[in-house]
Amino acid sequence: MKKVVYLGFVLEFFALMLFYGYAYPIVPFWGDDFQYMNTYPTLTLSLASDGWMPSRLLPQYIQTSIAHLAAYVIMPLTNLDFLDSIASASALVLSSAFVGFHILLYLCAFILTTHKIKSLLLSSIFMLGCVTLAKSQMMPLLLPADLMAEGMGYLLTMVCFYTLPYLINLGLVVGIFILVLQGKDSLSTQITIRGGAILIIVYLAIFSMESASIILASYAGCILTYRTLLSYKYHKKLLMVFKTYTLFDLCLVLIVILWAVALWKMMHSGRAMYCADFAIIRGITYFHTTLNNIRSGFILLFGITCILSLLGIYLIKDSRHRLLLITLNLWIICLVIFYILTTSKCGAKWYLMSGLLMAMLVYMVISLSIVATKYKISYIFVSLLFFIACFQTLQPYQERPRKAYNDFKTYSQSWIEQAQQAQQNGQTHVDIYVPDHFGHHRWNNWFAPHFPKTLQTYGILQTNLIVTFKPLSSQSSLSKE
Q1: For the chain, domain boundaries
Q2: Which pTM was predicted?
Q3: Alpha-carbon distance 179 to 168, whole Å?
Q4: What is the pLDDT, as a whole number, of residue 92?
Q5: CA-CA distance, 418 to 429, in Å (whole number)?
């Protein structure tokens, strides 16, 4: 059985590499793509109004790491050009991240069920949902580009700012769940090297986009609140409750405090000023729109999972499993409220809402693992039900990312070649003309300096070059004159 499980994960990794490497490849195109490949935000926590944005910490380090992997490992080994190396590095990182998280979810299900195949079937609900949850006019959660906004030209920044931070925060949630499940939350163990590494990951995970860090912070808050209330019910004094806090509880407190600091910084940053006025109706409307973009079979199965989970809270006698079911349900409620409030202020994108949908899939996997174990429900039946729900229609996704990749790569490659040619000719400045509907010619104040600087950092250009992006219509006007 162990070999079957290992083989399943290996095949999944290669399937994802094919998905990200060929069918849905990623190319740097948008202004943010080139800028954040060469930006290193400070790791030091700062409360001053100095422009330090905690929501950009983890995403920018992910993006620069992918660029380093592409430029210094993949390019020398494969002789691919810079853009294809970025696509390959992105495919490798995303495939590894999804398979790694699936393995963690499998281990969590195995602790609950003690059966390898059953655990593999239940944990595969997450991957099936990431592939088939959305309707055909949308993009899968594996690569949730918003086709009605930035489209397929925004993929690199999107996966670094949203998809990968979502997986990291969800991974930490599952890690907390496993600690509570195994009873290790009550141990006042010393922080080891491994524990210190986990704290660093937690620090980075919290300082990512608020829609990602809320996944970890809300679950930590739910666990901490429930444990505190139980302790208060027993001791009747808050001081005694605080004295009973273990190292685990203090880590939960730290997570919540760091997230509050990050949220405060974000609300007082220039980025928040670009958002519209708060309107709760807009947030509810966006949430309803998101539900309409999900296959109805998934919504039905999620509702069944919620009912079984709530029944489990009343029927399951094991206090630890009841605690976990209660906190899981509170967690999902908190996330729904947060995402509605966020979209009420800042609007919604499909890649923003994908974090909530991925959390709902994790909720389903863990809840069904607990409920199916206690109620003796057939795991094969549960997994088959989900499979049918996901594949209720055989309509393929309408978007053709491979074509979009080739189109956007043509433009990006052309810009790089024009910059290289200008440098070879001894020029210190070059004008690059782009179609009018591209936004690049409107970003000269912040994007144009970063484009040649990024190419210089990774050895594509040898010296500094001043680049100005201009609309193609202005070139036509000059030629007529």
Answers
A1: 2-390, 401-480
A2: 0.89
A3: 17
A4: 95
A5: 11
